[in-house]
């Protein structure tokens, strides 16, 4: 009886399994790859050496990558977040104009709404491209073209609204310059979507179409200065902002065309400085 009582009092050994704290975190996303480990179609900038997502062939997996850090994280969110802000502005612009400028016409409101819509479209397409670029060869190149189409759409919205303000009291000139920018924008979109003009070989040509379309904005600005004078143009059109925008456009095209060498030494910089 005494031996039986002792056996009952002895605790049963508990088996403990030690699990590393990082195991759950690491299992939530696939291992990131280096430049040399990704497929050739995925290799675009050999100065970005680390942080690549593996080819997924899954839209769901691509969007799941929003939840962890990789070398497209900054590109995705730097387009997506402003896109949401512009979308919110699209909702509030009518109320703002009605309160701040009660004499604004329906045309005024539609022009502002159109510009914000083109901005949302551009930023949304860019966020989608940077999200889906590791899906597959076909999907990546399709969304690359759509990314550029989004930029062309934003350029169209920018110019349509600018021409509206410059020639607010000159409807004939408004229509002439609208026809010009619409024609150039659709020509640019055609070149971007045409399979013949894809690949690195045509990169400079594609950029030149962007720059040419962008620089066409100098024509209505110069015409406006001739009609209204430099001082008045600055007041009624915000000309200084358009000139600054044009300079930034050309600077961005220069960076894209010549592929400025970015030597990133640490893995964190390789992840973020794109």
From TrEMBL:
Membrane association type: Multi-pass membrane protein
GO annotation terms (biological process): intracellular zinc ion homeostasis
Localization: Membrane
Chain sites annotated for binding Zn(2+): 130
InterPro entries: AdipoR/HlyIII-related (IPR004254)
Keyword annotations: Membrane, Metal-binding, Transmembrane, Transmembrane helix, Zinc
Annotated Gene Ontology cellular component terms: membrane
Regions that span the bilayer: 109-130, 142-164, 176-193, 205-227, 239-258
GO molecular function annotation: metal ion binding; signaling receptor activity
Signal peptide: none
Pfam families according to UniProt: HlyIII (PF03006)
UniProt KW Zinc keyword: yes
Principal place of residence: membrane
Family listed: Belongs to the ADIPOR family.
Name of the protein this chain belongs to: Hemolysin-III family protein
Species this chain originates from: Mollisia scopiformis
């Amino acid at each position: 009886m005494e031996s039986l009582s002792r056996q009952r009092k002895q605790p049963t050994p508990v088996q403990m399994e030690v699990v590393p704290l990082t195991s759950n975190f690491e299992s939530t996303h696939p291992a990131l790859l280096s430049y040399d480990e990704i497929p050739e179609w995925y290799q675009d900038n050999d100065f970005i050496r680390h942080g690549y997502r593996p080819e997924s062939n899954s839209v769901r997996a691509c969007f799941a990558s929003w939840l962890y850090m990789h070398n497209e994280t900054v590109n995705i969110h730097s387009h997506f977040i402003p896109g949401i802000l512009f979308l919110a502005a699209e909702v509030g612009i009518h109320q703002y104009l009605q309160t701040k400028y009660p004499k604004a016409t329906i045309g005024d409101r539609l022009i502002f709404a159109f510009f914000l819509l083109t901005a949302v479209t551009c930023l949304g397409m860019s966020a989608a491209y940077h999200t889906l670029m590791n899906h597959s060869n076909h999907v990546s190149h399709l969304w690359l073209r759509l990314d550029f189409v989004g930029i062309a759409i934003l350029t169209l919205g920018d110019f349509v609204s600018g021409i509206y303000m410059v020639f607010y009291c000159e409807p004939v000139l408004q229509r002439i310059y609208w026809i010009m920018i619409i024609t150039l924008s659709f020509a640019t979109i055609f070149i971007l979507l045409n399979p013949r003009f894809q690949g690195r070989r045509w990169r400079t040509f594609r950029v030149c179409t962007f720059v040419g379309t962008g620089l066409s904005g100098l024509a209505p600005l110069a015409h406006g200065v001739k009609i209204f004078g430099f001082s008045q143009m600055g007041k009624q059109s915000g000309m200084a902002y358009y000139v600054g925008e044009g300079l930034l456009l050309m600077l961005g095209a220069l960076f894209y065309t010549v592929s400025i060498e970015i030597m990133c030494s640490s893995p964190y910089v390789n992840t973020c400085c794109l």
